Amino acid sequence: MTDFDEKAPTWDANPIRVERARAVAQGIRASVAITPGMTALEYGCGTGLLSFALRPYLAHITLADSSNGMLAVLDEKIVSGGIQNMTSLKADFITDPLPEARFQLIYSLMVLHHVPDTDKILGIFYDLLDSPGYLCVADLDKEDGSFHHDGFTGHHGFDRNELAEQARRAGFRKVEFITVFNTPRDRDPGTEPTYYPVFLMTAEK
């Protein structure tokens, strides 16, 4: 997690990340019937950009991440804002014990492509949800590997049909997709950026 630890102090300074989080939050609110009493979990929360956009509409949010640097920035934002309905949690659900709490809403943003075992994490999300409960995953459509730098070992985005089938195997129903954002990447000075679509997958337990 060294790379994310190093990036954490300036993470929120990137306007594209802020805009993307707001767009995903809007997509979640448009796709899921959020009620004020809902408890939520954000997995791979980083500095909490997405959760801060959703915070006014939820009773409580648990924000989980395995990066100490990201969580330090998040905790500072929570304290400085006097926020009462957000709690951070240092955890990697693939290797660490799962929280005892169950949630009505679980969401993630640009996290799934970093998780090697997609089937396993979807099953974990299913187990952590109340019934009824909602899963919202925002991530990259399948791409040619150019989104990340050389040496990236995660998924190069996802085929929507294949991911939907994985979600259904985990037990989810009513799996649906919308496009919520197009992330620009500048590759060479003086050239037009390449845009990578970001989908929002919603599913119900």
Helix-strand layout with pairing:
Elements (H helix, E strand, L loop, with lengths): L1 H6 L7 H17 L7 E5 L5 H6 L5 E6 L2 H13 L5 E5 L12 E7 L8 H11 E12 L19 H10 L3 E13 L8 E11 L1
Parallel strand pairs: 1-2, 1-4, 2-3, 4-5
Antiparallel strand pairs: 5-7, 6-7
Q: Which fold name corresponds to the CATH topology?
A: Rossmann fold
Structural class: alpha/beta
Distance between the termini: 31 Å
Q: Biggest sheet, strands in spatial order?
A: 3-2-1-4-5-7-6
Which short descriptors sum up this protein?
single chain, 205 residues, alpha/beta, Rossmann fold, seven-stranded mixed beta sheet, 6 helices, 7 strands, 31% helix
Task: Offer a concise description of the structure.
By secondary structure, the chain is of the alpha/beta class. The chain has a single domain, classed as Vaccinia Virus protein VP39 (Rossmann fold).
Characterization of the model:
The chain is an alpha/beta fold and 205 residues long. 31% of the residues lie in helices and 29% in strands. The chain has helices spanning 2-7, 15-31, 49-54, 68-80, 118-128, 160-169, and strands spanning 39-43, 60-65, 86-90, 103-109, 129-140, 173-185, 194-204. The chain is globular and about 50 Å long. The mean pLDDT is 95.
